[in-house]
């Protein structure tokens, strides 16, 4: 998507209607010429480089700049990301709880690879970098690709 800065404001997609310096308006952005856009104060802005997790993208009025966030914001971002990871981990664990309950009710043991998988999920927050998580893969004995126990068709 192309972004345009209007009179050095933060870049946005081009509107369908622009006002020319003489007061006329033009509609249908597909027909605007470069000259008309410049006359109306619109300048095409290059797409910014996506910032990293501890950076923020800011518009100076003429260009995009990437700045580091302060320590307080860095800690907040990290806490939030770890909370998101815990929520996803808990969701994944909960989706297999029925298997644990069923095995307990029947007095059966669970396969070791399944127990290892669940332990790796529990240990997910021991990883060093919350922005580079390695999620465990559900074990698929016998080619079963559905973690809910049904056979592929």
Describe this structure in words.
This protein is of the alpha+beta class. Helix content is 34%, strand content 16%. The chain contains four helices and six strands; from the N terminus they run E-E-E-H-E-E-E-H-H-H. The protein has helices spanning 34-39, 71-95, 97-106, 112-122; strands at residues 3-6, 17-19, 25-27, 42-45, 55-59, 64-68. Strands 1-4 form a two-stranded antiparallel sheet. The protein has a two-stranded antiparallel ribbon with strand order 2-3. The radius of gyration is 26 Å and the shape is elongated. The two termini are 41 Å apart. The relative contact order is 0.09. Residues 145-153 have low confidence and may be disordered.
Question: Main β-sheet: number of strands, strand sense, barrel status?
Answer: 2 strands, antiparallel
Head-to-tail CA distance between termini: 41 Å
- The arrangement of helices and strands along the chain is EEEHEEEHHH
Question: Which value, in Å, is the CA radius of gyration?
Answer: 26 Å
**What global shape is seen?**
elongated
Task: Please state roughly what percent of the residues sit in beta strands, choosing from under 5%, 5-15%, 15-25%, 25-35%, 35-45% or over 45%.
Answer: 15-25%
Strand order of the largest sheet: 1-4
Q: Indicate the low-confidence ranges by residue numbers.
A: 145-153
Helix content: 25-40%
Number of beta strands: 6
Average predicted local confidence, pLDDT = 89
* Structural class by SSE content: alpha+beta
What's the helix count? 4
